[in-house]
Amino acid sequence: MSQIDEAALRSVVTEVLSKLQSSRAAVVTPSIQSKPGRHGVFDDAASAGRAARGGFEQLKKTGWAGRAKVVEIVKRMCAENAVRWGTIEFEETKIGRLEHKIEKLQGIRNVLGTEYLVPHGMSGDAGITMDESAPWGVIGAISPVTHSIPTIAGNIVNMVAAGNAVVVNPHPGGAACAAVAIDEFNEAIKAELGIENLVCTVEKPSLESFNELCASEDVNMLCITGGPAVVDAAMKTGKRAICAGPGNPPVVVDDCSALDFDKVAKDIIIGGGYDNNLLCIGEKQVFVVGNSYKPFMDSMKRAGAVLLTKAQLEAIKKEVFDVKDGGGGCSHAVLNRAYVGADAAKLAAIAGLKVDPKTEMLIAETADDDLFVIEEQMMPLLPIVRSSTFDDAVRMAKASEHGYKHSAMVHTMNVSRMTQMGREMDTTIFVKNGPCVAGLGLGGEGYISFSIATTTGEGITTPRTFTRFRRCTLVDQLNII
């Protein structure tokens, strides 16, 4: 190449680079204004989606350091505001227990952030290749009424760590508290990073705003933590969807003399009684094998559970379930939502029974086809089913879980039986000799997330769940071995 040609080439390259830099500088961030004085809160899903797109473009410019800073802000604010936000959520939703809503916010510190996104490198004679986790863009998130702010906060940590912005369509029953937290998150993020509308929400969410969010061109991915109908609708949009489906987690208590039944009872009440049984992973029904029935029931009562009579159970059942078409033929029981997450004392009062307001769990012996066994009722009332053998207990447990592949627990010191049940249940979370929450790192090893993608198979979500893999290859160079 001659000197003249090289100079001309340099000139062309310089001009092209200059134009590219000018083009990048000219990227216009969508100027979408949220409600006056409320950062990230919008009247409609389309505006929220466009604003979040602007937030995503701003986040990209801050690099990994910006993502890590947002994660730090969200975790810090959840800890600092746990009591105030937990109280706001409790007063709005009127379900569960205040102390557990506060604990869930304090637990956001255990959600995985940027540290989980480790690239995978390959090096050899042909050069080097790197697989990296890239963001999708804007993620539309549906949050439940059972854990409104904790689910949103956990999703922000996972999703922003992965480089995404978030737009939320919360459950209408928890929309006001969601708006409070999102407003304050955005205000803090703007103050420290200058980013506006990184997390957006719809002030008055509805089925229409959900459909609008799903259809928005600004939304690249969906994350659903909701009921079967919403999950089904999201999976039909054609967009990548991470879906947490229903669950009805069973527990099997083995006939095992080596078991500490007082610990078993404590574990089951910790998990099943948490936030009045609102956890989707929470113990919902118990199958007790052979001679373990009496020591187990004695331990449950020592641990504070109140045993209902058959008549008391039936009285409660008539109130908390509505059976259409008179209860015969193809009739189907529908849960009375007024009692979801209700206190044990409120349930007991239906049957004319007065119990200590601090009571965490009601228990009652039932058949394996009882409504309390086969329906996910999210109340602190555990049906206890006798079983003659371990095989039979696992069979009934599997039937009660309905193939959701969500969560299951077993208490036994027999490793072969642990293995047997784990294989039979095929659930996303399987806990041995501990409360359900041990499966989310609370008393067991691991990490927490409030979005457990059972339907689409990603399991307990992490930042990696919200990325797409990209590969970069350099041929023949930089391998220095």
Describe it.
The strands form five sheets. Strands 11-14-15-10-9-16-17 form a seven-stranded parallel sheet, sandwiched between helices. A six-stranded parallel sheet has the order 1-6-5-4-7-8, sandwiched between helices. A three-stranded antiparallel sheet has the order 2-3-20, with no helix packed on it. The chain has helices at residues 3-25, 45-80, 82-93, 98-106, 148-161, 175-193, 207-215, 228-235, 261-272, 293-302, 310-320, 344-350, 371-374, 390-401, 415-425; strands at 41-42, 120-124, 127-135, 138-143, 165-170, 199-202, 221-225, 240-244, 250-253, 285-289, 306-307, 321-323, 333-335, 362-365, 381-387, 407-411, 429-432, 452-453, 459-460, 467-475. It folds into two domains: 41-245 and 461-471, Aldehyde Dehydrogenase, Chain A, domain 1 (3-Layer(aba) Sandwich), CATH 3.40.605; 250-443, Aldehyde Dehydrogenase, Chain A, domain 2. The protein is built from 15 helices and 20 strands. Mean pLDDT is 92; it is low at 16-30. The two termini are 34 Å apart. The protein is globular, with a radius of gyration of 26 Å. It is an alpha/beta fold. α2 crosses α6 and α14 packs parallel to α15.
